[in-house]
């Protein structure tokens, strides 16, 4: 059956931007996770996840790179197309890889590819005030945008490592100003990575759009984790905010369901996962 016909009769219709705004208003936590293929997409949908991101983290967890920098647009299009095939209810976001949004025109061309070829409903890009013009341009073409602030993995070589951002007052104030500027430019979601929990709470309270956090404390409107961290199959050192939800469970589906429930019930993240 065509997806739009399914939607008409669905007891739980597909998530859209309006759903996420309503969830923020009603205080229902948004459970989000990454996925990179159709099989896992089907599992995360069955587990009740609201938002799925085809993240450029695939450069690390799938391709084995040390950073997300080598990921190309073609990589994201390929994985996004597979994920889109496995999803029905969750809202699908695709990452714009490193240097695929260096100009307004380039950003528009590439966002269109992620939507038309990949099946994404929203694109995510990293950056602060410097991306306001790009976000404005995409929004003026009715492209839904998620703005990623805090730790920006694509800037790892400029920043000199993966570390907590916004600890000092000045940096925290700048991050809030950037988030507000991006919201005013038309960003539909803000994602905050690796920042102090108090700052995650403050930014979430100041914005009208939903805020999804990863290592940003318990008070953002939703949480996101890398699927392979949830299943504890990421090799090497684990980030402080990650949690193995497979422990004590006997299937990936049960682990992802447990993650979703823990986000919804506000059990995750606990104090041990926060900065
Ligand atoms: O690439 C990714 O998976 C991400 C998440 C960590 C939020 O950006």
From TrEMBL:
Its EC number is 2.1.2.11. It catalyses: (6R)-5,10-methylene-5,6,7,8-tetrahydrofolate + 3-methyl-2-oxobutanoate + H2O = 2-dehydropantoate + (6S)-5,6,7,8-tetrahydrofolate. Pathway: Cofactor biosynthesis; (R)-pantothenate biosynthesis; (R)-pantoate from 3-methyl-2-oxobutanoate: step 1/2. Signal peptide: none annotated. The active site is at residue 193. 3-methyl-2-oxobutanoate binds at residues 56-57, 95, 124. Mg(2+) binds at residues 56, 95, 126. It is found in: Cytoplasm. It comes from the Bacteria. One of its GO terms (molecular function) is 3-methyl-2-oxobutanoate hydroxymethyltransferase activity. Its cofactor is Mg(2+). Keywords: Cytoplasm, Magnesium, Metal-binding, Pantothenate biosynthesis, Transferase. Gene3D superfamilies: Phosphoenolpyruvate-binding domains. Binds 1 Mg(2+) ion per subunit. Belongs to the PanB family. Homodecamer; pentamer of dimers. Catalyzes the reversible reaction in which hydroxymethyl group from 5,10-methylenetetrahydrofolate is transferred onto alpha-ketoisovalerate to form ketopantoate. This is 3-methyl-2-oxobutanoate hydroxymethyltransferase. It comes from Steroidobacter flavus. The lineage of its organism: Bacteria, Pseudomonadati, Pseudomonadota, Gammaproteobacteria, Steroidobacterales. The gene is panB.
């Amino acid at each position: 059956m065509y997806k739009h016909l399914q939607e008409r009769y669905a007891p739980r219709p597909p998530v859209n931007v309006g759903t996420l705004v309503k969830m923020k208003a009603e205080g229902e936590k948004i459970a989000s996770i990454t996925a990179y293929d159709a099989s896992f997409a089907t599992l995360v949908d069955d587990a009740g996840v609201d938002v799925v991101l085809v993240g450029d983290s695939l450069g690390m967890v799938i391709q084995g790179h040390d950073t997300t920098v080598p990921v190309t647009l073609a990589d994201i299009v390929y994985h996004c197309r597979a994920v889109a095939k496995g999803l029905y209810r969750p809202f699908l976001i695709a990452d714009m890889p490193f240097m695929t949004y260096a100009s307004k025109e380039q950003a528009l061309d590439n966002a269109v590819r992620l939507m038309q070829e990949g099946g994404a409903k929203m694109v995510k890009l990293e950056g602060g005030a410097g991306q306001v013009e790009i976000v404005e341009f995409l929004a003026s073409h009715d492209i839904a945008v998620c703005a990623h602030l805090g730790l920006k993995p694509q800037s790892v070589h400029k920043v000199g490592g993966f570390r907590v951002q916004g600890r000092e007052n000045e940096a925290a104030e700048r991050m809030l100003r950037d988030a507000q500027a991006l919201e005013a430019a038309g960003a539909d979601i803000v994602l905050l990575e690796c920042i102090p929990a108090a700052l995650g709470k403050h930014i979430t309270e100041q914005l009208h759009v939903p805020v999804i956090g990863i290592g940003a404390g318990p008070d953002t409107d939703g949480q996101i984790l890398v699927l392979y961290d949830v299943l504890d199959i990421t090799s090497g050192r684990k980030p402080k905010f990650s949690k193995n939800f497979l422990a004590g469970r006997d299937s990936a589906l049960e682990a992802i369901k447990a993650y979703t429930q823990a986000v919804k019930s506000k059990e995750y993240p606990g104090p041990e996962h926060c900065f």
